Amino acid sequence: MATFIIRRLFHTILVLIVVSLLVFIMNYYGGGDPVYTNLPPQATPDDIAAMRKAMGLDKSILVQYQIYMRNLLKGNLGNSWSQVRPVSTLILERLPATMELALVSMTVTLVFGISLGLFTAAKPYSPLSRSTMVVSILGMSIPPFWLGITLILAFSVMLGVLPSSGRGEVVTWAGVRIGFLTFDGLRHLILPAVTMATFNTSLLIRLARAVAMEEMMQDYVKCAKAKGLALRRVLVKHVFRNTLIPIVTFCGLTFGQMIAFAVITETIFAWPGMGKLLIDSINLADRPVVIGYLMFIALVFSLINLFTDLAYCVIDPRVRVS
Fold it and tell me: Taking the model in full, what pTM does it have?
């Protein structure tokens, strides 16, 4: 197990190096010139040259990359060109908001996705099961940006019962700003969480249903039914346990995507998370923030995949990590 973890951590380092190189090259040639973004239109050529030197853009791309990697090994992601603050500080300030949105959305996805998936597998021909599958197809077909705008129009503009933007009131607990612990923060969280969870919930319903229906045809389930066990007990004690491997795989990938790709949802609802930070930085050609964000996301995905592989051994003793 220790050898496996060490090997995976070594792979993570290699992934981060490759990601840093690709992102650095893409930002260098396609990210625009940040000098003109950070200077007023009336700037003189001397001002432009001074700003380019201050940003380190007067050096070649190879030298810039070497400097960046040297700082990265020291745990320094650099400073934001637009906000003149450390990139790590900006990311850590926005991380709680994104994590809060992702955790709530993931909880909604798990609760409704697994329960409805098992229900539709146990009673596939009931009217409620058929309706659930139709709704799940609809949920997978609706683009998140359109769903978010529709929810704002319905619940914020027409009904006026839920706020349309911002994070609302937050409280500080253990140095972390949390919004769902307050009533106002919870109200602000509902619409973006539903928007982010709809597609993933629909996908999980169909995944859980397919895996559970396959398990329902196994001999051990038929034996449990023949012994007179209640259908709910068979589902919870036997079927659900054997469907955990694909569900855990789905959850690991989905949770990483919720953290990394919350850009659309955070932009629609003006949610002050990392996604909005990325969009603002791209608009300002703030290369250190963009590269630092993508490096952080690559690290998150690598760690989530590691924890997912380790969870297999806990869920199913037949799985062994060599």
Answer: 0.82
